[in-house]
Amino acid sequence: MSVSPDITTVVVLVVLLALITLRVPLFLSLGLTGMLGLFLLQGVTGLELAPLALAAQLQDFALVAVPLFILLGEVLAVAGLGATLFETAHKWLNRVPAGLAGAGVGASTFFGAISGVSLSSVAVIGRMAVPAMLTRGYEPAFASGAVVASGALAMLIPPSLMFILYSSITGESVADLFAGGILPGLLLATVMLTYVVVRAVLRPSLAPRSEDSFSWGDRARSLVKVIPALLLIILVLGSIYTGVATPTESAALGAAGAFVIAGVIYRALNRDTIVRILSETTRVSVAVLVIVSAAFVFSKFLVVARIPDGVAAFLVELDVSRYLIMIGIMLSLIVLGCLVDAGSLLLVVTPILVPAIEGLGFDPLWFGVLLVVNLEIAVVTPPVGLNLYAMKSVVPELELGQIIRGVLPYVALEAAVLVTMLWVPGIATWLPELLS
Questions:
Q1: 413 compared with 334, residue with greater pLDDT
Q2: For 3, which DSSP code?
Q3: 259-293, pLDDT tens digit by residue?
Q4: Which residues 6+ apart lie within 8 Å of 355 measured at CB?
Q5: CA distance 303 to 282
Q6: Taking all residues of the chain, what is their mean pLDDT, rounded to a whole number?
Q7: What are the helix (H) ranges across 261-341?
Q8: Long-range Cβ contact pairs of 209-217 (< 8 A, separation 24 or more)
């Protein structure tokens, strides 16, 4: 005997919140509650839908790009690209107020365009940039905030794992989503860089001026070291946008190119580094895909319970401006982002909200970019903001309160960019339309 969808939904949500509160691993929380919902709705027959949902979604060829892009980033991280990027940015920005903080933002932006994983960006860049700033007298909150916030850009600047996951649920083109993230990502990087400079001008004590001196020759030579990585980014993204290769094929090409760069140019590959690369890639990939699998089971419950249809009908019938509804959705996502990690939030809310977004007449590609900007806020806000803890782990002398205080201004900046994108959709849609 089945239970009504309304009662089932309440029971499932209560159990899910209880499991999350008890710190049960998220893949278990999502998987168990999804199966509970299917059982309550359809009995044992409903449970048979769980493996079918897994098989249908995990065989998506686009998901193969996830471990390949993670592999690409891990290879270049082990090769020391993070240090190279930070040193190059420092040489070019050392005479600018808060030049080291600006170098951290610049290096994080570039590294994000390679790794696609915000935690990796914070760990790799933060390990070098923040101690260098602290040694030169930078205020700890100011130093850490710049790297924690800019590390989140890896989620938005392609190749972004979040866009691959969003595509696997909605069917939107990965290439179009990648293109949609470029301008917002560069806009956010510019806003962050402007912020650190203006703050340093207004309060010089936050970031004492660098006494390092570099000639134009030093600066030019430093660029030579990053050209291989730049060419790799152009190769990967160019092959996608020109239609030469699918995103998955481009990810494989990029991973192979990363090994060539690390082995031939940087000469960083040996038995130990290869083992480290493969073990870390496996660890991160399994963690991502296990959560993805559980989220697919939970999403199957949502579909069977017709929750997306109900939410869509409710929002469409509201007698208010659709933009007011969108603002309400964005505020809800920001609150949820404080409680649930970014990847899981995307996987859970996307099948619920996208039908409503389409019903309101909005572009789902545009919403996908807005959603990822929301997720950037999620990874830097307590208590679940993973980037905060990543910074604490690589620079343990920092207090968590200092890191949180340093990142709060960037939350306001990202919210301002989010509002701008609500009123100017072309920031996200112009480039995909141009390239299509």
A1: 413
A2: P
A3: 998 888 888 888 899 999 899 888 888 877 777 77
A4: 308, 309, 311, 312
A5: 31
A6: 86
A7: 271-304, 307-317, 322-337
A8: 209/97, 209/99, 210/90, 210/94, 210/95, 210/99, 210/100, 210/136, 212/90, 212/94, 213/94, 214/91, 214/94
